[in-house]
Design goal:
Blueprint (H helix, E strand, L loop, with lengths): L2 H12 L11 H10 L5 H14 L3 H6 L2 H8 L5 H17 L8 H5 L6 H12 L8 H11 L8 H14 L5 H14 L18 H4 L16 E11 L4 E2 L2 E2 L10 E2 L2 E4 L5 H11 L7 E4 L5 E4 L3 E11 L8 E2 L10 H9 L3
Helix pairs in contact: 1-11, 2-3, 2-8, 5-6, 8-11, 9-11
Function: Adenine glycosylase active on G-A mispairs. MutY also corrects error-prone DNA synthesis past GO lesions which are due to the oxidatively damaged form of guanine: 7,8-dihydro-8-oxoguanine (8-oxo-dGTP).
Family: Belongs to the Nth/MutY family.
Pfam families: HHH, HhH-GPD, NUDIX_4
C-alpha cells in the first residue's frame, strides 16, 4: 500500500476550507502555524483573522507595540509565543528586508521557530522537501506502523522524524504535509477515530493488534504545582483601580494584573488585610470582601492556580488609578479577562 498516495487522495477529498489554505505567503502560514500550536483550529481562526486584519504584513506586525500584540493574543495562552512572534517580525523586517528566508536551516534560526514550524514554512511556502511532525503526525505514524516509542522522548523524536522523511512525497510536499496533519486532525483522531471508513485500515498495525487506544505512547508529565493567587482589586471613590505589569520569566510575562498576594494555601479576610500594607501604600480600606465564593482553579500545563479576587474599597483616590470601565483595553491573562467581564461596582 502506498501510504503517501493514499494520504494525498484522502486530503484532496476531505480538506477543510481554512483561511490560510488559499495562500503560500510565508507570513500568513507562519502566523497560522504559531497560533495553532496547542490550539484547536476552531479557536484559532478568529485570532488569525483579527491578526491579519490588524497586521496585514510582517512589517505591520513589526511596527506594532508589544502591548497591541499581547492584547490581540489574549486568550490563546502561551504568551511567550506572541512575544517571539513580535521579535521575529522585527528580525525579518530589519535583517531580511521583509522577506522570509526560504530554507529550513535559516528559518530554524528565527526566534520561536522550531523543527516543526521551520519544516512547515519551508515545505508549504517554498516547496522544500522537509517532513513535518506535529501531534497529528505522531499519532498517525505511531498507529499505522505500531510504534510504541514515547513521542515526547529524545529517541522517539528522532525516530519519528526519520520515518516521516522516508515516507513523505517530496514531489507533492505542500499537499502531502498538510494532508497528513489533516488526516490526524479529522480521521485518525485522539479519541474514537473512525477506523471503519479509514483508507489505511487494511495495513494499520494498531488496528490489527487492538492498540488504537494506547498509541501513541507518551512519557508521564511532571508533577503539577499548586499555587494560590489572591488578586487585590482596589477600588476608590472615583471607580478607579490599579493594574501592574508582570515582570521576570514566569507565566504571563508583560501582561497586566491586579496587585497579587500569593500564598501557600487558601487564606481568609484577616490574612489579606494583614498583607495589604506591604503591597499598597494607602490608608485603611473601608471594606474588604471576597468576590468569588466559588473556587476558581485555572489550569496551566504544569501548574494549577487556585484564584480568589478580593474587592478592597477606599474613600480616597488611588494614585495612577485606572478607570474600571477602561480595564478591557489592557492585555491581561484570560483569568483576569473573565473577571473583568463580570465585575460590576
Amino acid at each position: 500500500m502506498n501510504f503517501s498516495r493514499i494520504i494525498l487522495e484522502w486530503y484532496d477529498l476531505n480538506k477543510r476550507l481554512l483561511p490560510w489554505r488559499n495562500t503560500n505567503e510565508p507570513y500568513r502560514i507562519w502566523l497560522s502555524e504559531i497560533m495553532l500550536q496547542q490550539t484547536r483550529v476552531a479557536q484559532g481562526i478568529p485570532y488569525y483573522m483579527r491578526f491579519v486584519e490588524a497586521f496585514p504584513t510582517v512589517q505591520d506586525l513589526s511596527s506594532a507595540s508589544e502591548e497591541q500584540v499581547l492584547k490581540l493574543w489574549q486568550g490563546l495562552g502561551y504568551y511567550s509565543r506572541a512575544r517571539n512572534l513580535h521579535a521575529t517580525a522585527k528580525i525579518i523586517t530589519e535583517k531580511y528586508n521583509g522577506k522570509f528566508p526560504d530554507t529550513y536551516k535559516e528559518l530554524l534560526q528565527l526566534k520561536g521557530i522550531g523543527d516543526y514550524t521551520a519544516s512547515a514554512i519551508a515545505s508549504i511556502c517554498f516547496g522544500r522537501p522537509e517532513a513535518v511532525v506535529d501531534g497529528n503526525v505522531y499519532r498517525v505514524l505511531s498507529r499505522y506502523y505500531g510504534i510504541d516509542l514515547p513521542i515526547n522522548g529524545s529517541e522517539g523524536v528522532l525516530y519519528f522524524k526519520e520515518l516521516a522523511k522516508e515516507i513523505m512525497d517530496a514531489k507533492n510536499i505542500r499537499d502531502y504535509n498538510q494532508g497528513i496533519m489533516e488526516f490526524g486532525a479529522l480521521q485518525c483522531t485522539p479519541k474514537n477515530p473512525d477506523c471503519n471508513s479509514c483508507p489505511l485500515q487494511k495495513s494499520c498495525v494498531a488496528l490489527a493488534t487492538n492498540r488504537i487506544d494506547i498509541l501513541p505512547v507518551k512519557l508521564k508529565k511532571n508533577k503539577v504545582r499548586n499555587r494560590y493567587f489572591n488578586y487585590l482589586v482596589l477600588v476608590d471613590e472615583n471607580k478607579q483601580t490599579l493594574l501592574q505589569q508582570r515582570k521576570g520569566n514566569g507565566i504571563w510575562q508583560n501582561l497586566y494584573e491586579f496587585p497579587l498576594l500569593e500564598t501557600e494555601k487558601y487564606v481568609g479576610h484577616t490574612e489579606v488585610a494583614d498583607n495589604l500594607k506591604e503591597l499598597v501604600a494607602l490608608e485603611e480600606p473601608s471594606e474588604i470582601y471576597l468576590y468569588n465564593e466559588n473556587k476558581i482553579v485555572h489550569k496551566l500545563s504544569h501548574q494549577h492556580l487556585h484564584t480568589r479576587f478580593w474587592i478592597i474599597t477606599f474613600e480616597s483616590n488611588l494614585e495612577n488609578g485606572i478607570q474600571i470601565a477602561e480595564l478591557h483595553k489592557y492585555p491581561v491573562p484570560v483569568l483576569i479577562a473573565d473577571f473583568i467581564k463580570t465585575f460590576k461596582i
